[in-house]
Design goal:
Blueprint: H1 2-9, H2 16-56, H3 70-75, H4 79-110, H5 116-124, H6 131-141, H7 150-163, E1 179-181, E2 187-189, E3 198-203, H8 219-223, E4 230-237, E5 261-266, E6 269-275, E7 281-285, E8 293-296, H9 316-341, H10 345-353, H11 358-369, H12 371-386, H13 390-395, H14 401-404, H15 407-415, H16 422-451
Parallel strand pairs: 3-4
Antiparallel strand pairs: 1-2, 2-8, 4-7, 5-6, 5-8
Helix pairs in contact: 2-16, 4-9, 4-12, 5-9, 10-11, 12-16, 15-16
């Protein structure tokens, strides 16, 4: 009797299928316990702000009055927003394309370099620099002053090496001292002179740094007599250090102005030209009889070449894209290099055995086999480019900020940078999210496809 009762009271045996279900249930609970903090942070930092921004985009600037789709309508009527959309389109087309192409070329070339690892490290190092620091670096590099901006310093050096510079950009004539200034910036003597005479041309405003070290006093040259068949003269600095001297006269302590181009003009035409010596003297020989005026061409006084306005309205966007390329080229090269290392070498060797050259192998074999990797790199860069903010905000000066603005910077400027219209700023944020989502979905599908 007791044995029968104990038998009836014992639980039924647990099957193997039930045990598996219980184990899976416990595994799900444990996994959920580990994932829950991440999901909580994701909801607090991503999902909630997105939903809040979507809701906020339907209210006015104060956030109290529901305006429906007015912010979205206003967004596409605002010229600044349309310019931001245009600049964003330029970024999306240009930057990822250039980066993918550069990364591909560098990845292929690095394979043939002996110190490939060091080269990759060197190109990848800008990734360790924050966008803020990179923006400051390139803001200084693009400075229009050649004494500050390294790019303009290089441009000016090359320009001056081939074209040369004016000798005295700040020089000018005193009023009433016998010189008239032409419309082109040249100076011409008001009185004429004939062969056998001497002409003294005095200038002021020459900076000490512009006066050549080999310049000598002009007084001995002014005292020389001209031959009967020559027109002689001197171009000098009509200024005596420490004061004294007489205006319009060559004093003993006044310096000549060497390397000054001088022309003899008759009836409006240049009949002879020369360059002044170290003491500022010049002479025209074998001139015919008649009256001549002396002219100092405008090239003597042309302002120095200041280089390129990298951060002007026309070039500010390409300049910022250049800074972006400097940062991200290493990223593209490393990813494409990893894909290149996984290529089947037998296909490349077979092509070489068949007589294909390196260009044909690159174009017909390497690029097609790398197409999935190139696509992932390109789409990843497109997503990143759509969100670019730091470089544009830091590099572009205030006066051209609107010419360089993209959607991310425009969203910030409208919301917090003076516009104080968070309704319109939220609408811009939603637009940016809608533009990014297709690229993100495409990339996720590519990753899943590669895993399968």
């Amino acid at each position: 009797m007791t044995a029968t009762l104990l038998k009836e009271a014992s639980p039924p045996p647990v099957s193997m299928a039930d045990r598996r279900r219980r184990a899976r249930r416990r595994g799900r609970i444990v996994a959920l316990a580990f994932v829950f903090p991440a999901l909580l942070l994701l909801g607090a930092l991503v999902v909630y702000p997105v939903l809040f921004s979507v809701g906020r985009s339907f209210f006015d600037a104060s956030g109290t009055r529901f305006v429906g789709g007015d912010n979205y309508t206003e967004m596409f009527r605002d010229p600044a927003t349309l310019k931001a959309v245009r600049n964003t389109a330029i970024w999306v087309v240009v930057a990822p394309t250039l980066l993918t192409g550069l990364g591909l070329v560098l990845a292929v070339l690095v394979e043939k370099v002996r110190w490939a690892t060091a080269f990759k490290l060197l190109l990848f190092m800008p990734m360790a620099v924050s966008f803020l620091a990179a923006g400051i670096i390139f803001r200084l590099a693009y400075d229009e002053d050649p004494d500050k901006g390294v790019l303009n310093a290089a441009v000016v050096s090359v320009h001056d090496a081939f074209t040369g510079t004016s000798s005295y950009p700040t020089a000018r004539a005193r009023d009433g001292q016998g010189l008239t200034k032409g419309a082109d910036g040249s100076y011409r003597t008001t009185a004429t002179a004939s062969p056998g005479h001497t002409v003294d041309v005095g200038l002021v405003g020459v900076l000490p740094k512009d006066l050549p070290q080999g310049a000598r006093p002009a007084y001995p040259a002014a005292a020389r007599k001209a031959a009967s068949d020559e027109l002689r003269g001197v171009v000098y600095l009509d200024f005596t250090r420490g004061g004294g001297g007489q205006q319009g006269k060559v004093d003993r302590q006044e310096s000549g102005l060497p390397e000054m181009k001088v022309e003899a003009v008759r009836d409006g035409e240049t009949v002879a030209s020369t360059t002044t010596a170290a003491d500022g003297s010049f002479r025209f020989q074998d001139l015919g009889s008649g009256s001549y005026s002396v002219r100092l061409p405008a090239s003597n006084f042309a302002p120095p070449y200041q280089g390129v306005s990298w951060l002007g309205p026309a070039l500010v966007t390409p300049a910022i894209i250049g800074a972006y390329l400097w940062i991200w080229t290493g990223f593209a090269m490393v990813l494409i290099g990893a894909g290149l290392a996984a290529l089947p070498r037998d296909a490349l060797e077979a092509a070489r055995m068949d007589g294909a050259n390196e260009w044909q192998i690159f174009r017909r074999i390497t690029v097609p086999l790398l197409a999935p990797v190139l696509t992932v790199v390109f789409v990843t860069l497109v997503i990143n480019v759509m969100k670019v903010f730091d470089l544009v905000y830091i590099i572009a000066p205030g006066p051209v900020q609107e010419d360089a603005t993209v959607l991310a910077t425009q969203m910030w400027l409208v919301s917090f940078g003076g516009g104080n219209n968070q309704g319109l700023g939220s609408a811009l944020g939603v637009l940016l999210l809608l533009l990014v989502i297709p690229a993100m979905v495409f990339n996720v599908r590519r990753f899943r496809g590669s895993q399968r």
